[in-house]
Design a protein that fits this description.
3-stranded antiparallel beta sheet; alpha/beta; 8 helices; Rossmann fold; 5-stranded parallel beta sheet
C-alpha cells in the first residue's frame, strides 16, 4: 500500500474513517486541522492568525499548509504510510502534493470521497462534543455521551469554537467551490472512489476496506 487521500465535506466522518484505516493498516494520519490546532496552542502570532481564519470558516493560506505537509512527508518513518484527512483542499495544494510525493519518491494508492447531504452535515457538526479529558467524540443528535459509553464527567464535554451554524455554512460553501474540482482531477487519474457517507459508520468502513483490498490484489 501507499498513501491514501480521504475527502468529504466538514462533518462527513473523515476523521473517524481515517482512524479506522490507521488502526488496521498501520498508517499515520495527516490532518491539517490537527496540525493547525497544534499551532494555535502555541499562542504565537501565527497561531492567532490561523485561529482567526478558521473561526471565520475560511481556509488557511496554502504556503502555511504546504510547509506543514512537507515536514511530514520528508519523515522517513512515514514513507508511503500516510492518510491525508482534509488535504489537499484546492488545486494548488493538489499540485504541491504531487510535487512533494515525487520529491520523496512516494505515491498515492487511492483517493476516497465520502458523499453526505448538507442537512446531515449540519446536525453532525452542531451536535459534535469532544471530551477534553479522554478525547472521545460524541454527538448530541446521533451518539450522545452516556454513563455506558463515557467514563468521564459530562463537564469535560466541549464544543469546538468553529462548530457554529454560520461557520458551517461558510465551510460547506468553500468545500463546494474549492475542493470538489479536485475530485475531477483525481477521477482523470483513475484514483477516485466515491462512497455513500450517509450510512452507518461500520458499513461505510466495510466499503472502504473492500476498495483497499481490491486494489491490493
Amino acid at each position: 500500500m501507499a498513501n491514501i487521500v480521504l475527502f468529504g465535506p466538514p462533518g462527513s466522518g473523515k476523521g473517524t474513517q481515517a482512524n479506522n484505516l490507521v488502526n488496521e493498516f498501520n498508517l499515520f494520519k495527516v490532518s491539517t486541522g490537527d496540525l493547525l490546532r497544534k499551532e494555535i496552542k502555541k499562542k504565537n502570532l501565527l497561531g492567532a492568525k490561523i485561529k482567526s481564519i478558521i473561526d471565520q470558516g475560511s481556509l488557511v493560506q496554502d504556503d502555511i499548509i504546504n510547509e506543514l505537509i512537507e515536514n511530514i512527508l520528508c519523515n522517513k518513518s512515514y514513507f508511503n504510510r500516510l492518510i491525508f484527512d482534509g488535504y489537499p483542499r484546492n488545486l494548488n495544494q493538489v499540485k504541491n502534493l504531487d510535487t512533494l510525493i515525487k520529491k520523496y519518491n512516494q505515491s498515492i494508492f487511492c483517493v476516497l470521497s465520502l458523499k453526505v447531504k448538507q442537512d446531515v452535515i449540519y446536525k453532525r457538526i452542531l451536535g459534535r462534543e469532544i471530551c477534553s479529558k479522554c478525547g472521545l467524540i460524541f454527538n448530541s443528535f446521533f451518539n450522545p455521551a452516556t454513563k455506558e459509553n463515557h467514563d468521564c464527567d459530562l463537564k469535560f464535554l466541549q464544543k469546538r469554537s468553529d462548530d457554529n451554524e454560520e461557520t458551517i455554512r461558510n465551510r460547506f460553501q468553500t468545500y463546494i467551490v474549492e475542493t470538489l474540482p479536485i475530485l475531477d482531477y483525481y477521477q482523470n487519474q483513475n484514483l477516485l472512489y466515491e462512497i455513500d457517507g450517509m450510512r452507518e459508520i461500520p458499513i461505510i468502513y466495510k466499503e472502504i476496506r473492500r476498495i483497499v483490498h481490491l486494489l491490493e490484489t
